[in-house]
Write a sequence for this structure.
């Protein structure tokens, strides 16, 4: 066999799984159909590490949410990704609905959530003055946090790579065949891999991957959610994440700071047949705008710098599907991972890796690499530390992205690190060049020059993201 384990999908779930697999003594590969990690559901995520009050007690969602949230907090100190405990509020707008806050509190107790408190509307506004006067009651979750989904996924993938895991990008799985002792994974690149086990972390395409192998079919509906992101001038308008009472389609439209200080609102939830449709529509943006105005009477919509949408993988059963397929020994699913999937990601990764290791009879490595060195961030340093860094490497003193104050040195680092960026969006997700007010209008040409130089990609072949999304074309 070529590999002990092949993971399909390079989002936060696949990256968490391959990271924990890499701690075992086995040969592991992750395949991703796009050019980079974080290119599917993970790239358009709320970035909320939920406390765990919402999932139905006894479900995998409930168990893995609470455990995963604690793991993210612990791993942030070792893997150095962007993470902040900021607290969250679930708010009611009518005394008729106030009893639902009590029900969520009781559900949170059953799920093992700590540091919860029920507040009146006035008490909540003392903490968050921009809350609507219509808020009547609030569940305050002090342990809720925010994280950068890109930073988390990058940290997991880099650590897995450092521990020996292999990665293949621009590689789409087209079929999986059962063979003696395992599986043959066939891709669109005229290559195939033999492996003792397969792990399905393919997001909205998790049903297609499962149904190649198992007679126990699953069905995933893509639910599209749109967001609006505001200029960082809105920093401090809200410090906590504000949720409205949840519905059958999720936690509703939230108002939250990002871990980098921008205000963000969204998402809605629209079931769509096209699993590649991440368009934004005027209807969707109008809906989330009106919903957000229930949370706060003033939302500075003139400060919106971009809108985007992402897809969630809703499986018909309503719960995560995690484990070995009954009729396909060695084939493991991590499917139907919708909210609170990000919060649960590390718990899912650890759980699946142990299942695979038990199936293969593999033990933990004696001395795996458990830490990751954080990349330099001059804008967050004190003046003396920053001057010392620039003196050692002058490229950290050359600002390329004015909006986010990102230096040439940071961009070079993003290209040359393990699993380095090979597209404009890859740079943006790693170091935020192009993430600010001008959305790359100023810095993109210089970023492309650096990609050409340090990744050896011809200028006219550099993509925004996926293959074929070229920014420029050669004049022939």
């Amino acid at each position: 066999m070529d590999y002990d384990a092949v993971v399909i999908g390079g989002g936060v779930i696949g990256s968490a799984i391959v990271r924990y697999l890499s701690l075992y003594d086995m040969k592991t590969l992750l395949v991703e159909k796009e050019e980079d990690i974080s290119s599917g559901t993970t790239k358009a995520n709320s970035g909320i590490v939920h406390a765990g009050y919402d999932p139905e007690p006894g479900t995998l969602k409930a168990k893995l949410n609470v455990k995963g949230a604690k793991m993210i907090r612990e791993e942030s100190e070792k893997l150095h990704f962007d993470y902040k405990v900021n607290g969250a509020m679930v708010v009611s707008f009518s005394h008729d609905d106030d009893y639902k806050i009590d029900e969520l509190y009781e559900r949170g107790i059953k799920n093992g959530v700590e540091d919860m408190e029920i507040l009146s509307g006035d008490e909540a506004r003392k903490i968050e003055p921009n809350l609507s006067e219509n808020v009547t009651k609030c569940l305050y979750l002090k342990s809720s946090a925010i994280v950068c989904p890109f930073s988390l996924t990058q940290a997991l993938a880099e650590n897995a790579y450092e521990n020996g895991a292999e990665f293949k990008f621009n590689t789409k799985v087209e079929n999986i065949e059962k063979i003696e002792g395992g599986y043959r994974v066939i891709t669109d690149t005229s290559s195939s891999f033999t492996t003792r086990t397969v792990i399905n972390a393919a997001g909205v395409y998790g049903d297609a991957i499962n149904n190649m192998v198992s007679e126990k079919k699953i069905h995933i509906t893509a639910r599209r959610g749109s967001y609006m992101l505001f200029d960082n001038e809105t920093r401090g308008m809200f410090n906590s994440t504000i949720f409205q009472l949840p519905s059958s389609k999720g936690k509703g439209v939230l108002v939250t700071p990002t871990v980098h200080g921008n205000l963000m609102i969204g998402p809605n939830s629209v079931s769509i047949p096209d699993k590649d449709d991440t368009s934004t529509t005027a209807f969707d943006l109008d809906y989330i705008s009106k919903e957000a105005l229930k949370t706060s009477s003033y939302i500075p919509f003139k400060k919106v710098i971009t809108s985007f949408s992402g897809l969630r993988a809703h499986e018909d059963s309503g719960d995560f599907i995690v484990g070995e397929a009954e009729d396909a020994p060695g084939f493991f699913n991590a499917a139907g991972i919708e909210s609170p999937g990000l919060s649960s990601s590390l718990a899912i990764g650890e759980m699946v890796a142990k299942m695979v290791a038990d199936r293969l009879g593999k033990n933990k490595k004696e001395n795996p690499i458990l830490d990751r060195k954080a990349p330099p961030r001059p804008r967050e340093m004190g003046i003396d530390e920053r001057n010392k860094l620039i003196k050692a490497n002058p490229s950290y003193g050359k600002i390329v992205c004015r909006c986010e104050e990102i230096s040439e040195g940071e961009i070079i680092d993003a290209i040359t690190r393990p699993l380095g960026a090979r597209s404009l969006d890859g740079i943006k997700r790693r170091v935020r060049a192009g993430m600010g007010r001008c959305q790359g209008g100023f810095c993109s040409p210089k970023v492309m020059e650096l990609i050409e130089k340090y990744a050896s990609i011809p200028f006219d072949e550099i993509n925004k993201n996926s293959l074929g999304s070229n920014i420029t074309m050669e004049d022939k």
User: Anything to note?
Assistant: The first strand starts at residue 3 and ends at 8. DSSP finds twelve helices and 22 strands in the chain.
